[in-house]
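fyi for ur records
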Amino acid sequence: MTWQINVFGVRHLSPMGAWQLRRYLDRVRPEVVLIEGLTDAAGLIPDITRPQTRPPIAILAYTDSQPIRTLVYPLASYSPEYQALLWAKENGAEVDFIDLPSDIFLGLQEQEAEIRRGAGVGAGEHAEGEADQSAADNPAARETRRSLYERVAALAGEDDYDTYWERNYEHNDSDDGYRRASYEFGVALRELEEDLPRWRAENIVREAFMRRRIAETIAAGTKPEKIVAVVGAFHASVLSGDLPAMTDSELKKLRRRPSKLTLMPYSYFKLSSQSGYGAGNQAPHYFELLWRALQSHDLPALPMHYLTLVARNLREAGTHRSTAEVIEGVRLARTLSAMKNGIAPTLADLRDAAVTLIGQGELSNIREALARVDIGTAIGTLPQGVSQTSIQADFERELSRLKLVKYRTTVRQDVSLDLRENRRVKGEEAAFLDLHRSSFFHRLRVLEIGFASPARVKQQSANWAEVWQVQWTPESEIALVEAVLLGETVELATAFKFNQQLEKCHSIDAAAALVKDACQCGLLQSMEAARARLQALSAVSTEFVAIARATYQLSLVAQYGDVRRFDPTPLLPLIEALFVQGSLALFAAAACANSAAKEMLVAVDELNRVGLQFHDRVDEALWLRTLQQLADADDRNAVLSGYACGILLERGLIPSEALAREVSRRISPGVPADLGAGWFEGLAQRNRYGLLARQSLWQQLAEYISSLDEEQFRRALVFLRRAFGCFSPQEKRQITENLAEHWGLQVDGASELMELPLSEQEEQKLQDLNEFDFGDL
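which gave:
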């Protein structure tokens, strides 16, 4: 059957396209509006067009089984598709989506991934390398490798495709000018398109399916002239009955992945990060300003409005900018546009004018203000419960219950929590609000939903204090939807993920980390399951680092106790047993290379902390005997021996005379330089204030260094430089003063010498040291 319908080709996020489309629909008055979009998403149209729905929003399709694949279809207020949906609702016309259903799109996506994997990485890399070399040698080859849209922009004399499109299409408000121009542009693209055959094949499949859907609409009784199709300009010229529609047999052959659909809020920031024709734009807020100007029939005022907003943002940030600079900026932008034969200034013209006049020639002066005006912080909203999965609905309920709704923005904010009971409020829910917030945030962390993440703090907080950084992003919404495969609510999904992790857990420290995570998530049943798994693994574990880490993790959990409202008593016997295991395993593990010593140092410190915290429960005497044995040993790692000596000194278990003898024994000319300096490196990592106060120690170190020949000195320097590298400037100054007294120098003079700039010769020596290869040591 031959038919011809009304087709309006658009760019998918085009204010002028949306504005002229509505005028076109008013003139044609179609009975049916067909839109390029997932055909199985038609059931979401009533929710999309609700008065309470505020774009940007997106249709999200996702597979209902692992591995999860997703497909996002964003809509802004100025999307032609969104305005077509609104027009149809306002004018009583039927409306439908006509692109491939989501299960086929996701099936094609998976098929594409399999094709890439099957291509072979080695062969692909070789071919790519050859192509890169060809492009480097041949300017014509370089031109071919540029995208089609980049080449179109270059031929038009523009720096980028977005500027080309805006100057030639977004400012063309002549009657029906946009539709005609975009149609011809789509025809030209099809003639020039040289992308991969697979990409061409996907378009052919999609277009055949769209023709099938149009034919079905006509067969249902709608006259072709009463139909308007709103599609990307690339497809506009092939939606006619002159070309074949997809047959039933062809449709059955297409690969599918069972899928589900939902609506989600979207953000302008996410739109700005997308790229490619029709997929997004770099300045979504600017195009919203353009859309508002079109609606108010005041497009010539857009440059003034844009530059005024830039100046206003600078003023709010404390930088004054005058009205005169804005006026001159508008004049400059219009001049730049006229030089390109433009109807009005483009965003590129406005940015150049803003940098020149308002930024006084420096982009850095107004970079942040431009980002706010170009991109914006807008985030869409949906009515409560609209087209949500069960876990999305639970997430919304939790935000409301925990009074976190105000944090659901694209602006990152810090949330400080005090997990202790708030006795100044009534009701248990209010008294433990921050504790429930903490459990919720930790559950999202375990599910890898990036709404909340622990903030880094310079000093370790008390166990009742937490700081989180909270920011909503479309990625976090997608991760939330994907988590529905694990459970119907955030709590159930987190518990299910814990069970998955426990099944894969084969190390004692990983099991202890799960105990801690379950505790922080407020999942006591999961915590008990992880504790049981840890106890089973502890019976066969002999690795010191894993045992120490597990013991320390459990000690942290036990500290939570009253704060997180659980009884830590069942954990205490396990902490005691693991502490004994670690104490017994340390000495044998200390016979390690320097490469392993760094991890060992952390483990020794962690187990020592447990000994201090639970001194009344653990076998601390065994631990101290092991440390003494390690401190006295000559056949263990020298850094670890020094570190054990430092811990004993810190605890007041080594008298000054004994320390002096040990220092004399360890750093003497008869001891290999790397062993002596390595021992001192370990010692220097504990109780620095106590070391700085011992003048005799620095005298012995100075004499030891003086006794080394050049080769020994170079070997010792590796460890000594590392040892002193962690000292603060003030501590280094005190060491200098100690050595000055030993050498008979004036303390002030030595400090002044330390502050003098290095000579060229000293700089060169330091550079040589940085580049020296100590691998042979």
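Residues 44 and 372 are 31 Å apart (CA to CA). thats all i got for now
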